[in-house]
Amino acid sequence: MAGEVLKQRVFAPTCYAAVRNTNIVAICASEAGRFVAHVPIAWRSRAGKFELVILRSFLGDGRGHLPGMQTATTLLPVLARAYPFLHDPTRAPTPGQPKFIDPVIADEPDDLGAPITAMNGRLTSQAARCIALLDASAASFAETAVISQCIADADLLEPWALRFEAQGAPTIELKGLWIVKHGAIATGAFAPLMRAHGLAAADLVALHRVSLFRTGLLLARARGALGITADGATGAPNELATGPATSSGGGV
After folding, report:
1. Per-residue pLDDT tens digits for 59-117
2. Helices (H), 46-124
3. 221: which residues sit within 8 A by CB, 6+ positions away?
4. Per the omega criterion (within 30 degrees of 0), is the bond before 84 cis?
């Protein structure tokens, strides 16, 4: 980071729309335990590589989230808590490597924010906290990427069919997510993975499987946000004209 970037002011994470509204966010294995009781944990494929993610909502416009998931710091993934600072997207994260910053404007600032560097050229406490979060999680993100790719290379993942229809109501659909194949664990297909990566891989797969039980609650939140009743009727047809729900294009 240098030049004009250092003049940017940074705010608390929840001051940014991307942190509050992005419905699919990458996480590392070490933080999966924080989310298993709240939202589904799955995988997303990008450019042939699989990354571990949480599904925070079926809708990409900020609606349909569970209470607290958009504002409570304890329920924000590491990448959201460190925002607008980012890992270098072109290589595996390692502690101490240069960081990127998203030149985004906080749409809901709650104060004057803080500069990235102080007058003496040192990082301010806000910037240092964000960078420390990224450095502390770098090793786990790298390990998570290796385990995730091993699961995918062993053909143990399948597309997650997330399409829900009701007569007289809009279709709720989300594409691009993957889950462990049904029955794969019972066949012993995961044995090589467990031998190679041990407890870390076992815990990740177990947390993933348990977290899927939260899908129904997220669907209910999406239906409520869209005004869909239990019988499929809706009281807000104009609001629904945008079509199927999709993952937001940007974000953390």
Report:
1. 989 999 999 999 898 899 999 999 999 998 888 888 888 899 998 989 999 888 888 88
2. 78-82
3. 57, 58, 64, 65, 66
4. yes
Q: Which residues contact 231 (CB under 8 A, 6 or more apart)?
A: 166
42 beta partners: 53
- Give SS3 for 54: strand
Beta carbons within 10 angstroms of residue 44's beta carbon: 19
Do 86 and 99 contact (CB within 8 A), yes or no? Answer: yes
Tens-digit pLDDT profile for residues 14-50: 999 999 999 999 999 999 999 999 999 999 998 888 9
Specify the 3-state DSSP secondary structure of 73: helix
Helix H segments across 90-175?
Answer: 125-153
Instruction: Decide: 110 and 67 in contact? Cβ < 8 Å.
Output: no
Sign of torsion, CA 157 158 159 165?
Answer: negative
Give this prediction's pTM.
0.86
What percent of the chain is modeled with pLDDT above 90? 53
pLDDT tens-digit map of 157-178 = 999 989 887 666 678 888 999 9
- Show the tokens assigned to 4: 């004009």
H or E stretch at 192:
helix 191-211
CA atoms within a 13 Å half-sphere pointing along the CA-CB vector of 142: 14
Residue 100 and residue 85 in contact, taking contact as beta carbons nearer than 8 Å: yes
